[in-house]
Amino acid sequence: MGSYKDLLLYKKSFALAMEIFAITKHFPKEEMYSLTDQIRRSSRSANICTIEAYRKRVYPNHFISKLTDVDMENSETQGWLEFSKECNYISKDAYEKLYSLSDEIGPIVQYMIDNPGKFGAGK
What we know:
Layout: H1 8-24, H2 35-55, H3 60-86, H4 92-114
Helix pairs in contact: 1-2, 1-4, 2-3, 3-4
């Protein structure tokens, strides 16, 4: 494993964050410092915590801890997506697409937590 950029988790969480960034450009201005900011932060945080986990992989417990942060931030993103849909800021189709992308992240995180050695943890 050469770089965090090689991780499927990194690639998927980055793609999700960028999709969310693009779609939230059209959210109402009054949401700029609330929903827009929160959903962008949580989606980006999932990606950044992935990088941090990779950097801490020599310490398995730290690696796993950062991965649980990824899971938490991704779950938060799902909550904000729900609000976005219910406030009619995104269509049902957009919601389903983004939620599906987010939903793909969970099993990857769990696999990494269950198999830290496969990602260089403890070496």
